[in-house]
Amino acid sequence: MSRVEKFREIIDTERLDGFLVNSNTDIRYLVGFTGSAGMLWVDMERVIFMTDFRYETQAKKQIGDLAEIHITSSEKSYFDIMDELELLKGKKVAGFDGNVLHYSLYRRLIARFLNVNWISITNPLAKLRSIKDSNEINKLQQAVDMAIEALVETLPILRPGITEREFSAELEYRLNRKGSEKSPFDIIVASGWRASLPHGVASEKTIQSGEMVTVDFGATYDGYTSDLTRTFFIGSPDEKFEKIYNIVLQAQQKAIDNMKAGMTGKEIDEIARKYIQKEGYGEYFGHGLGHGIGLQVHDTPGVNSRNEEPLPKNSVVTVEPGIYIPDWGGVRIEDDVVVEESGVRIMSAELPKKLTDMIIPIG
């Protein structure tokens, strides 16, 4: 069954006569178009893709016969095309994603098609996109592999005297050389006290001996992203760092060892969280254990205390516990895993994470 056919099942379940898709990510998922401008109409009979003249050739090449392609102009808008094609004729209820469709566009939509009851369905493709097919998993693995290779090549310059931003730039350069289409997010390089900032994007701070350095990075392969984190130490770590590092490592390992398809995101999150709490650092672990990755770096399903839905087989998620102590620093360890029937497969297993592997010797 094609993705459009599966989406039609969702439309039918929601008792809609059609759906107007304007999320670039959802459009790419359904019909393969990678451009930045377009709308997709899906009902039980037709699939209509609309874009402007800049993307006409690209749309025809990427979409093929998955949808009819229609081009807007200065005289003909998306809604003019919908009117011309009578897409809403006889339709009573239609859907859109209220988290994506801008309010001004929504006002124009309801004013144009007065006889249609427009219903907001948030993230309508979430469940479909959370289950990865073998092709998607292969692309995610490629994104993981190129990220690992880039980090390994960059690590020799992680020494006292380099700034966080310099290291980030060198890592991004190597990611691009490996084939990453782009960094899926701003690379995090946070050293010393700045490692207490979970999203400490690289700054002009100089990395010094005796400091921890958290590096959170990823790659993009054919639209699919990876998201990995390692925390290094420059020189000889003290007992406090060693203790906290091993607590985070054990928390992650306990979650990985126990998680499997059918468990809820909340249940998996609790495994790591309770261990960190037991060790006395619960107040310093303030984010969820992980998130889905795919065409977006933060995707469904969530691995956190709010998600009480079972994780499906072949979902791909991060597992990233962390401890962040103000004015001291922090530790985060993050891997990407495929959730399987009886456990998980660690996609980033080739990237070392034992404490001894995280020490950068100096001298």
Structure characteristics:
363 residues, alpha+beta, Creatine Amidinohydrolase, 2 domains, 4-stranded mixed sheet
Model description:
With 363 residues, the protein is of the alpha+beta class. The protein has two domains: 3-124, Creatine Amidinohydrolase, Chain A, domain 1; 130-360, Creatine Amidinohydrolase. It is 33% helix and 21% strand. The chain is built from ten helices and 19 strands. The protein has helices spanning 3-13, 24-31, 56-63, 78-84, 103-112, 126-130, 134-154, 164-178, 239-258, 265-278; strands spanning 18-21, 39-43, 47-51, 68-71, 93-96, 117-120, 188-191, 212-217, 220-221, 224-225, 228-234, 290-292, 299-303, 316-319, 322-325, 329-332, 335-339, 344-346, 359-360. It has a six-stranded mixed beta sheet with strand order 4-3-2-1-5-6. Helix 3 links the parallel strand 3 and strand 4. The mean pLDDT is 97.
Distance between the termini: 60 Å
CATH superfamily of the largest domain: Creatinase/methionine aminopeptidase superfamily
Number of strands: 19
SSE order, one letter for each helix or strand: HEHEEHEHEHEHHHEEEEEHHEEEEEEEE
Largest beta sheet: strand ordering: 4-3-2-1-5-6
Low-confidence stretches: none
Average residue pLDDT: 97
Report the sheet-strand fraction. Answer: 15-25%
How many DSSP helices?
Answer: 10
CATH topology of the largest domain: Creatine Amidinohydrolase
Shape label? elongated
Q: Cα-atom Rg, whole angstroms?
A: 23 Å
Indicate the CATH class of the largest domain: Alpha Beta
CATH architecture of the largest domain: Alpha-Beta Complex
Class by alpha and beta content: alpha+beta
